[in-house]
Amino acid sequence: MKRRTKLGLSIIIILAVAAGMRKLPGYIQEVAVRTLEERTGRRVFSEKVRYNYLTSTLYLENFKIMEANEEDTFISFDSFNIDIDPMKLIFKTLFIQEITLVNPSLRIEQTSEGINYAEIMENWKESQEKNPGEEVAEEVDPFLKRIELENITIESFTLYYQDEVITADNNFTFKTPKLTYGDNLFQLSSKLDFLDGSYLDIDFHYNDSTTEFGGGFKGEKIELDDKLFLPKKILELSKLSGEVSLDLEVQGKIAGNSCLISGKSSITNLDILNKQEKRLLSMDRGRITFPQLDLFNSNFHIEELSLDGFLLNQGELLEHLTSISTPSKEESEGGTLPQIAIERLSIGDSVIETPLASLEEIDLTLENFGTYEGRSKVDLSLSLNRRTPVKIGGTISKERDLKVLEDLEELGFKGRVRVTTLDLREVNTISQEIPYELSGLMNIDSYLTYSGDSIRSRNTIFLEELNVRGKTSQEEYSMGSGTGILNLSLKEMRDYTIDGEVILNSLKASLVEGRPLFQGEEIRVSMDEVTQDRVAISSVSLTNPKVTLWEKEDSQNPTDEPSVEEGKTSGMEEKKAGDTSKLPLLLLKNLQVDGGRVDLIEEDFKYTLKDIEVAMKDFTSERDREFTLLLEGGLTGLGRFKSESAMSLVEDWDFTATGLNVDGRFNISNLDLVDFNPILKKNLPNEIKSGRVFYQGEIKMDAGSFRGENVIRVKNIHPGESTGNNPALPLKLGINLLKDRNNNLLLDVPVYGDFNDPQFRIYRVVLQAMKNLIVRAAASPLTMITKTLGLSEERVSTISYDYLSSELTEDEAKKLDEISKVLELKDGVEVKLVLFTDLEREMDILNERLKEEKIFKTSTKREVLEGEVRKVIQGRRENLLQYFRSKFLEEKVSVESSEVLRSKPQSQVEFIFN
C-alpha cells in the first residue's frame, strides 16, 4: 500500500475515533438509564455526563435511582468516574482502567410489608425469565463486543438504614486483573485488597442469557473490624472483630431460583460488643465444612461445625436484638423451617451466660443432627455456675422431616440426664417468686424418654443437707439426706402419673426461730400412683418423729381454744365451703408412726407424750368409706393413753367436725395432775398436791351431732396451797365433797352437742358439766358426801339413845363409825353433835323405876331425879368424845347439850364444811 493511502486511512480512523468519543457520553447515559429503568422498574436520573479527552475519563454526575414513590432516593452518588482506554474501541472493546464511585449512598428500609428493594429483585428476575433457555435480544449497540474492567475504587460511603445515617470515610479497591463482558458472559477474576495485608480472591462468571453463574471465593485471615463498618452500624455494635478464612465454591441460576455453595470457612478470635462495651458473643475458634448450602431452597448440608471457646451472654444478646429489630409479619405468625443436615456438631470449652445461671465448660457433640427424619446422637456435659456438673447423653429422634415450626413438637429424646452435686442455692436465682431460700446439694440421675408431647422417666434423686428458709418469715425446714426413686409419665404435657418411693432422713422444721416444731429420724413414703385425679399411697412410715407445740406469744389464756372472729370462717370451714371437686382422690393404705413424741411447752410448763405408736388403715378422702386409727403411747411419768376409732366422711374431702362420722374409744391411765400445776394454778384457787387421772371415754359423731360418755377417775386427789386465783370457785370443798372413801374422785360427765352450732365447743361443755358438779356439791355437801361414801344422808343425821342410857346400841354405834369415815376421808369437814332429850319424860321414867325398887313406892325428890338424868346426858357426851378421841378425831368434833325439848333422847349430827 502506498504511503499516501496509509496516511489517509489513519486520518480517517482517528477522525472516526474522535467522532465516536464525542458521541460516547450521550451514548453511555442513554444506554445506562434505559437499561437500569427496564431492569429495576424505577425512575433513573443522571444530571450530567461529560468526558475529559485529556485523561480519557467519563463522568456521570449526580446519578440517582429513585424509590417506588419517585420522591425519595434509593441509590445515588455524586460522581461515577470511568477511566477509558479509547484505543481499545478500535477493536470494539470497552476497556475500563478504573471505575471510581464518589460518595455513594444507599437507602434501606424494613417495614412489616417487606424491604424497599424487594420490587427491584422481582423486576430483575422477570427480565431474566422472558425467554428462558434462549439468548435475550441484544440491548447494547453491536459496535461494542467486549467490556473489560481493571479496578474499582469506592470513595466514602453513606447508608440510610431505617432512621440511621451510617457513613464510612475509608476507601477500598477491587483489583481486577480480569473483568470482562462479552457475548452475554460476565467474567471476574479479582483480588479485593483491604490494604492491611489481607485480601479476598474472587473468581466469578455470569451468563446474561441463561442467568447461570458460578465461581469461587478464597481468603486467609481477613480482619473483620474495619471491613464490617456497615454491619457494625446497622447492628449498633462498638466492636465486631476476628479473623476469617474461607474457601468457597458457588454455582446457580437466577431464573431457576438456584444458588448452591460448598466449601469451608473458619473464624478465630471473634469478639462482638454492643455500644455499651458489653460483650455479646466471643469465640476462640469456629470451623464449618459444608458440601452444599442451597440458599434459595433453604436446604443446608453441613459436614462439620465446631465451635471452641464460645462465650454467649444470652441476656445481653436478647436485649440487644430486641432493641434493634422489629419482627416481620412472617416472623410474628411463624413460618417454615430450613432443611438442615449436620453430620457432626461440636462445641468445646464454651460458656453461656444467662440472667439466671451460668453454663460453663460446655462440651457438646451432636451427630447426624438436623431437621430430617432419623436419629441424632447427643453427648453434652457442662458445669452449672462452675459448681454443678451436668451430663446428658442419648438419642434425639424425628419420625418425619421437620418442615414447619409446629413439627418441632414431634421431636423425641431417649437417654440419660445426670446432674451431680447441684447446689440448690442456684435455684434461688431461677425462682425469684418462691418465698423461700434453698441450700443443700442434689444429685439427679434420670433415664428419660420424650416423644411428641409425652415424657417417661425413671429418676433417682439424692439430697444432702437440704435447708429451706423463709425470705420474709422465720420458717425453716431442713433435712440431713433424702433419696427418691420416682417414675414419671406425662402425656400431652398435662396428664401425669408418678410412682416410686421417697426416704427422708433427719428432718427438722420450725415456724419461729429457736422454736423447733418437728423433728424426725426418717420418713418413708411408697406411692402406688399419683395423678391429677388420684393419689394412691401404699404406705407412709415415720420413725422417731418429735413434735413440739409452743405457747403462742400473744396468748393471754393458755387454756383458751383458738377462736374464730365473728363474721369470719375458720380455715377448715373455708375448705368445706370451697370447691373440692378438683381435688384428687386420696387413698393411704397404711400410716405407721413408731417412737413418736409430742412436747407441749409454755413459759413454765412442759408436758410430754412419748413412745407414740400410730397405725392408720385405709385412710381416704372419699365419702362413706371407713378408715381406722389406732393411737397409743406414754405420758410424762408412768401414764399411758390409747385411742381406737373408726371414721368416715359425709362428703368427699370434708374433714371438718360436721363432715366426720366417728365411733371411738379413748383411755388415759395414771396421768399425774401435779405435772399440770403450772397451768392449773393460773386458773384454780388451789394447787393440786396429788392426784392421778384415769379416763375412759366413748364418743360418737354423726355429721356433726356429738355424743360422748366420759368417766373420769382421779385417785388420791388432794388440793394443795391456795393460789389466790379464782377464789369464788370452791375447788377444795368440791374435791373433798366429791371424792370417795378411798380419796378417789369419780366423775361421770356425759357430753352432748352439735358442731353445726357455731357456738358449740367440747371443752366448754366439759367444763360446764364439772362446774355444775362442784356447785351441786357445795350446795348440798352432806348429800354429796354420803353419796360418794355410799352412806345414807338420813341415817347419819341422827343418833338415838334409849331412855336413861348413855350407851349406844350396836346399830347406833355403827353410825359413829360412818361419821368417823367422813371425818377421816374428807379434809375441812367437822362434826357438831347436839344432844337433845325430853328431860321431864326421862325424870318420870327414872322416878317410876326407883318406885319399883322401894318398899313403900314413894316418889323421889325432883332435885334428885334431875341430877341423875343430867348425869346420863353428861355420860352420853363423854362417851361421844371418848369415841372420837380413840379415832384421833377429837379436834374435828364438838358435843353440846341443848335444852330444846325433843320427844326422844338423841344426838343431832351437824356437818360443818370449811
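Second entry:
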Amino acid sequence: MKSLFRAGFFRRIVVPALLAIIMFVVTVFAFVIPAFKKSAMQQKQSMLLELTNTAWSILQKYHKDQTAGILTIDEAQQKAIAEIEALRYGVEKKDYFWITDMEPAMIMHPYVHDLTGQSLSEFADPDGKKLFIEARELAKTKGEGFISYKWQFMDDSTNIVPKLSFIKVFEPWQWIIGTGVYIDDVEKEISSLTNKMIFILLGIFALISLIIFFITYQSLGIESRRREAEAQLHESREKYRSLVESSTEGIILLLNGKISYSNTFIQSWLQYNGDEMAELNLPEILEDGIAETIEHPGDEHRLDVKLLKKDGSRTEAIMTILPVHFAEKEGLLLTFRDISEHLTVQTALEINREMIEQIAEVKSLGIFRFTLDSKSRIMKYNDQLARMLGYDKPEELKSVSLSRILGGSAALKQILSRLPETGTINTSKVKLLTKDNHFIDVRLSLFVGIDNRQQRYCNGIAEIAGESAGINEDATSGRIPPVFAVNLLPLSAFCHQPVTCPIDATISDVLKLLADNNADCVIVLLNYRCSGIITRGDLIKRFYLHHTDTSMHALSIATSPVITISSGSSTTDAYTLMHRNNITQLPVLNPSGDPVGIVSLARLAGNYIDIAEFAAQLLKTGNSVTELSRFRKSIPGLIGPMLGQTDSVVTFTGILSGFNDTITNQIISNAIKEIGKPPVAFSFFSFGSAGRRELAFNSDQDNAIIYEDNSEIPDAELQQYFLTLSDRICRQLDQTGLISCKGGYMASNPAWCKPLSTWKKYFAGWIDNAEPENILNISVFFDFRHVNGDQQLFNELEQFVFDTLKGKTAFFYFLARNIAGFRPGGSKFGTMLSEASGKKSEMVDIKNSIAIVVMFVRIYALHNNIRLKGTVERARAIYKLNVFSRATYDEVLFQYNFLMTLRLKIQLQQLASGSEPDNLVEVKKLTEMEQFILKKIHAGINEFDERLSATFMSAYKG
C-alpha cells in the first residue's frame, strides 16, 4: 500500500502541490518582498533628495545676498546656519540637517554641538565606517549622493540604528549639506510582511494537505483496484508468454503477411534471433511455395512442410495454420512440430543394432530373447550365440528349445524362479549345453521387458566364463571393477518375498510357514507393521534348546524391535546395517512402512564386498605414509568409471569417503602405536563434507578430537597427549593427500582438541548466543560424524547438541537469514564471479552452489531432530516427516546429484590431464543441456529464500 501511494499519488498529486507552494515561496521571498523593500527605499531616497534641495536653496539665497552686497559672507553664513539648524521634519519633528566643510569639519549639527568646529576625519559609526570622509569623497566626485551608516536614534545616544542620508555640496562656500532618515522602520515593515506571508503560506500548505489527504483517501481504493487489475493482467501475460516460450513447438504470428512474433523454440530451431526473424518473409523459411497458399486458409488445418534454416539446411515439420484476431487485426497463428527426429529413429535404431552386433562380435557375447510363457521359446538370437553353442549354421538353433540349452526344464525353472521383482539377473554363472552335448560355463545376465502388446519377454546376454578372460578384461577395459558393481544395483535386486504371520500366530504356525515356503525367517505383523522377526537361529536358541511348547504365541520367541531398511536404500546401507547389528535377515519396507521384501546376508555374500574391507585388502602389503599416499592417488582411477552409473551420486562419494576413513583409521592406529595408548577415551570425528560422507577429489581436512574429562589426570597432561596425537594424524593425512584446512579447522589446532565438557560449552555457546556474523562458519560443525575411538563419547556429545537445539528459534532464525544471504559468487547465472579467481568470466564455483543445497537441507534436519549426516539421507528423512513435499524432495535430490556429479566429473578430467582439481566450472565448455539444467538449478536455489523465511524467519519476527 505504501509503495502504491508513493508511486502514484506522490508523483501526480503531491509533487504538483509542492511545486505550487515552492513557486509561491520563491515569488514572495525572491520578488515581492525585495520589490517592496526597494520601493520603500526609493520613497525614502526621493524624500531626502527633495528635503536636501530645499535646505540647499536656503544656502543659495544667502549666497545671493552676499554677492549682492546686502550681507557680508560671515553674516550670510551665520544666517544660513541659523535658519537650517532650526529646520525639522518627520513624525516627531526630530529629523534635521547638518553641515560640514570639505576638510571635513563639522560646521553645524543641531543635536551634537560638541562636534562643531571639530575635524571629522576619524569619526566612524559603530561598524567602523568613516561616514564623513565617504560624504566628502562623494561630494568631490559626484556633487551629491546617498550614503548609509549607523547613527544614534534621534536624541537617544544609546540607541544605534541604520540610517540613510543624502548629501549635496554647496560649491561657493565648499560646504556639504546633508540630512538622513532612519530605515529601521523599513526593516520592521519587511519583517512584518514576511511573518504575514509565512502565516499565509502555512495556511495554504495546511489547506492543500487536507485536500491531498481527501483526494488520497478517495482515490486510494480506485488506484489499488487498478493496480490489482494491472498485476493480474501482467501475470496473465507472463503466464501466457512463459507457456509460449517454454513450448516444445515453434510458434509464429503473422499480421499483414509479416512475422509479428516468434518464440524462442522456432528461433533456436531455425538458427535466427528475434530481430532477424522479424525481418524475414514467410517464403524465406518455407520451401516449395507453401507460403503463398496459406494467405486465406479458412479454417484450421495442417500441412507437412520443409523449413529452411539460416545455414541453408532443411528440416521436416508439421505446420498447423489457425486464423486469429489480434488487436483488431486479422492474422495467422502458425505452429510447427519437429518431425525430423521421428524420421531418423528407424535409421538410428538400425545403427544401434549394428553397433550392438559389432560389440557382441568383438566381446564374444551371445545375445538372445525368449518368451516368458509356458513354452519359453527363443524368439531372436545373434550368430555369436549359435557359434558359442557349437552350431555351424545359425538357423539350426531355431529348432532348439531353451530348456535343452540350459540342460533341462528343471534348470530353466530354477533360473526363472530367481528372477526378482525387478526382473533382472546380473552375471549369474550357469552351464549351457552345446550341440555336441558338452557343458560350457557362461556368465548369464537376464532382463525382463514388455512389448507393445503387453507381452512379457526376457533378453539374455551370455559371455564365456574364464578366469583369464575376466582378469584381462578388468585390467584393460576400464570398466567398473566387479568388486564395486553390486553397489550400482538397487536393493530390490537382492530381495525375496517376505513370509509373514499375524501377531496371534503360534510357534507351530511359524514352523509350518518356514517349511512350506523354504524360508529363513518369518515376520510377525501387527496392523501390517513389523512387530517381530523369527529366524531359524531364533528357533534353535529359543525353541529347540528350551523345549518350548509349540502352542505358545510366536511373538514370545521373536526378536523385537525389528531392525529394518527402506526400499530406496543402497546395498551398502543394507550390508553396513546387518554387519553393525550382527543380524542375517533384514526386512525391507516401502515408503508406507509395509514390508515388501527380505534381504539376507547370505544372498549378499559373494556379491557384495565392504569398501573398508576391500581397502584393507589393498593395504595389506604396507601401511606406511608412502603406501597410504600411493593408495590415495590410485583411488580416482579405481572408482572413476563408476561416476554417473547410478541414479544417485551418494554411492560414489560414499566409496570415496569410505576409502578416506580407512586411511584415517590406519594413520590413527599407527600414531597410537608410536606415542602410546591414550590416557582416557577419545573420539576422532570429521565434520563438513567428510562428516557427511560427501568428499570430492580436492576436499581438505575438517576434523577434531573429543576426549574424556578426568579429574585424576591434569588437564595439561591430557591436552599435551592429544595435541601430539592430533598433530601426527593431521600431518600424515596431509602427506597422504588430504590437504590441511586453510582455516585451521583440524584436530591439531588446540581450539578443536578439547575435552567433552569444553565441546559442550562450544555448542551451547553457538546455539544459545547465536551471532549472525559467524553462525554460517560454525554451522559445518553440525555435520559431525564419528570416525575412530569411543563411539559412546561421541554419542553423548551428539545427544547434548540435539537436546540444546530444541526450541532455539533465534539460532534457526540467524542460520536461515545467513543461508538466505549466501550466494554462489553472484545472484544470477552467467554473470557470476568466481571467488577463487576474482576474474569476471562465465565461471561458476560449483562448491558454493552445492553448499546452498547442503545448508538448506541441514537446517531442516537440525530443526527436526534428524541425526543422519548425508544430504540425501537427510532430505529423505525430512520428506518422510512430511516437512518436505514430494516436489521439494525431488528437486533437492536432483539439484544435489547433478551439481555433485558435475563437480566430480570435472575434477576427474582435471586429474586425467595432470592438473590440480578445483571447483570452477567454465560454463561455455558445458553442453547446452548442462547449461540449461545449471541455470534452472540456480533459479531454483534462489527460491529457497522464501521457504526459509516462511519456516524460520517469519515466526521469529513475530
